[in-house]
Amino acid sequence: MSLHDDAVLVLKGYEGQRELCQTYLDHLAVHPDGVWKACADGHITASALVIDPERGRVLLTLHKKLRMWLQTGGHCEPVDATLAGAALREGTEESGVPGLSLLPGGPVRLDRHHTPCAWHYDVQYAALAPAGAVEAISEESLDLRWFAYDEVAGVADASVVRLLEAARARL
Fold first, then answer.
1. Residue 152: CB partners within 8 Å, gap ≥ 6?
2. Rounded to an integer, what distance in angstroms lies between the CA atom of residue 149 and that of residue 59?
């Protein structure tokens, strides 16, 4: 199965945000390359909010290009067989935390936003950090920091706050 096919299956199984989800599915129906950065009309991205429920905190990255505190995530790559795998790979690479595991139940939210490269059709997961997780900054970040749940709204935009709320509701 291709990553495109996996994305379609994941989105068809996603029960929230029906109108936005249909926008994603319509995009993929028109763009066989819609999961790849090369698709100039926009592309699917995969992200993971790294969360430590035992300590009531999330790990955010200060994005190098956008200069905003965001969840980990980014473009799908040829090594990615699934969207979940892409989100987990991105979360691990950008957080430096080994042993992350995705919160069961598939994506937590969808968020479509325009970036300098194109429209991003972001499929957002939550990744659980193992006990004692220690982060390590990557080349894609200016900074990497744990924030208590109640601090997130003060540093991140509304999309990250909505993602955190959705992830906490599923915990």
1. 58, 60, 160, 161, 164
2. 10
Query: For residue 26, what are the contacts with CB-CB under 8 A and spacing of at least 6?
Result: none
**pTM of the complete model beyond 0.85:** yes
Contact criterion met (CB below 8 Å) for 111 and 170 = no
User: What sign results for the dihedral spanned by CA atoms 146, 149, 150, 154?
Assistant: positive
Which amino acid would we find at residue 102?
L
The shares of helix, strand and coil residues in the chain, as percent rounded to the nearest 5, are 35, 30, 35
The predicted structure's pLDDT at residue 139: 84
Task: Cite the beta strand spans of the chain per DSSP E.
Answer: 43-52, 57-63, 69-70, 72-75, 101-102, 109-114, 119-128, 141-148
